[in-house]
């Protein structure tokens, strides 16, 4: 057994519901890690001895970010599409097919190498848990390859065969759904924990989404959903009805959707990078918090609608443009993400949790929003190991 102490922490964000405030702050704190878990949390003056000691120089320390929504596996990029959007062209779901073409062409080793690069990018920015969706293969072999590669780097793998209808099934969406819930699900379910569907005009209808999600649930997969990105639909109602862990985007919501979410266990995951990169109106997080909805913030890192891997950036935008307080944004990017993945071992610095911590080169978590674009992450521990 190895013990490691981080001491002289100026401000510790614990997210411990037993402590005061949403973030359960402790000043002049220390944390003891025992192998991969947290063994003690408290005031530095009362800290136990340890095999090694790290001086956090009065910096802020918080739980590692939990990015509960990414699409990290793809070939090519769509920088040109982004450039056109900044010049006024609207975002449309159809762009996904461009990435499907490059992903199908990419050799497996190239996909693995690119994924490793992005995983490193996340780690140095303080993300210690991330989900990965498939969805740029849309045939049985490529979707299987994507979920298998994702499972090499995370336990949080989501099968998103129902991302859009691929070109070879154009005009035959229901037949494509048959493929998704038949042979594709057979090939992908063994590698995945979750099933997801893009329920939106230009992607899948609510009825098609129901077929996909029910088939996944029957195979033991948990439910997540993309809904309310480009317009209102009954996708949110379906997500709650089916007991989804999370419904993601939620930019366009009716009052009824907000009430339904508030009275459910389904987390609402907001993705600020999407509105930033598509120039669409931001969701109103204030309305959701005030109604009592549990909110997660995630990057949605993907080559089309949001090619950022920075949770700090998402926090800054959520505070600047979505009506979140810095406290709510930091909670949503850590404990909120853990809730969206139905995990109790991450997102909090409490005894027994996995030792995933981020030290900022700053005295307070406020600096995450206050100093946008500045790389503030000093050190990152994942499962008690220093990873950056
Ligand atoms: O979450 N909305 C659907 N899927 C992705 C976008 C993927 C793309 O444009 O390539 C999203 O925003
Ligand atoms: Fe997405």
Automatic annotation (TrEMBL):
Single GO cellular component term: cytoplasm
Binding-site residues, N-formimidoyl-L-glutamate: 136, 302, 304
Keywords: Cytoplasm, Histidine metabolism, Hydrolase, Iron, Metal-binding, Zinc
GO annotation, biological process: L-histidine catabolic process to glutamate and formamide; L-histidine catabolic process to glutamate and formate
Entry EC number(s): 3.5.2.7
Binding-site residues for Fe(3+), renumbered to this chain: 69, 71, 226, 300
GO molecular function: imidazolonepropionase activity; iron ion binding; zinc ion binding
Location of the Amidohydrolase-related domain: 61-360
Name of the top EC class for this enzyme: hydrolase
Associated pathway: Amino-acid degradation; L-histidine degradation into L-glutamate; N-formimidoyl-L-glutamate from L-histidine: step 3/3
Binding site for 4-imidazolone-5-propanoate: 78, 136, 163, 229, 305
Pfam families: Amidohydro_1
Reaction(s) catalysed by this chain's protein: 4-imidazolone-5-propanoate + H2O = N-formimidoyl-L-glutamate
Necessary cofactors: Zn(2+); Fe(3+)
Residues reported to bind Zn(2+): 69, 71, 226, 300
Compartments (UniProt record): Cytoplasm
Main location: cytoplasm
Function: Catalyzes the hydrolytic cleavage of the carbon-nitrogen bond in imidazolone-5-propanoate to yield N-formimidoyl-L-glutamate. It is the third step in the universal histidine degradation pathway.
Family to which the UniProt record says this protein belongs: Belongs to the metallo-dependent hydrolases superfamily. HutI family.
Name assigned to this protein: Imidazolonepropionase
Lineage of the species this protein comes from: Bacteria, Bacillati, Actinomycetota, Actinomycetes, Micrococcales
Gene that specifies this protein: hutI
């Amino acid at each position: 057994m190895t013990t490691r102490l981080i001491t002289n922490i100026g401000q510790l964000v614990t997210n411990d519901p037993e402590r005061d405030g949403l973030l359960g702050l402790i000043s002049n704190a220390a944390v003891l890690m025992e192998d991969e878990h947290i063994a003690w949390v408290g005031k530095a003056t009362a800290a136990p001895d340890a095999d090694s000691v790290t001086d956090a120089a009065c910096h802020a320390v918080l739980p590692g970010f939990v990015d509960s929504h990414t699409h990290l596996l793809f070939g090519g990029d769509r920088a040109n599409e982004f450039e056109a959007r900044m010049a006024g062209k609207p975002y449309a779901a159809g762009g996904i097919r461009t990435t499907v073409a490059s992903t199908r062409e990419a050799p497996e080793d190239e996909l693995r190498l690119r994924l490793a690069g992005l995983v490193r990018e996340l780690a140095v920015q303080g993300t210690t848990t991330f989900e990965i969706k498939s969805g740029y293969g849309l045939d049985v072999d490529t979707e299987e390859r994507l979920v298998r590669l994702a499972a090499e780097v995370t336990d949080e793998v989501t099968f998103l065969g129902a991302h859009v209808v691929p070109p070879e099934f154009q005009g035959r969406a229901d037949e494509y759904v048959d493929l998704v819930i038949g042979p594709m699900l057979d090939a992908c379910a063994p590698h995945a924990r979750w099933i997801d569907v893009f329920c939106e005009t230009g992607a899948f209808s609510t009825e098609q989404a129901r077929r996909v999600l029910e088939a996944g649930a029957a195979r033991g997969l948990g439910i997540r959903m993309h809904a309310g990105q480009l317009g209102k639909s009954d996708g949110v109602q379906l997500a709650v009805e089916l007991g989804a862990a999370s419904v993601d985007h939620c930019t366009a919501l009716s009052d009824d959707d907000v009430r339904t979410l508030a009275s459910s266990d389904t987390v609402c995951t907001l993705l600020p990078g999407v509105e930033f990169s598509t120039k669409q109106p931001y969701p109103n997080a204030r309305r959701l918090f005030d109604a009592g909805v549990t909110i997660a913030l995630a990057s949605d890192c993907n080559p089309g609608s949001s090619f950022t891997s920075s949770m700090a950036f998402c926090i800054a935008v959520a505070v600047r443009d979505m009506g979140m307080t810095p406290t709510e944004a930091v909670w949503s990017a850590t404990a909120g993400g853990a809730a969206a993945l139905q995990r109790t071992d991450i997102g909090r610095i409490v005894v027994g949790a996995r030792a995933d911590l981020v030290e900022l080169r700053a005295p307070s978590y406020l600096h995450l929003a206050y100093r946008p674009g500045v790389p503030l992450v000093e050190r990152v521990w994942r499962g008690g190991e220093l990873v950056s």
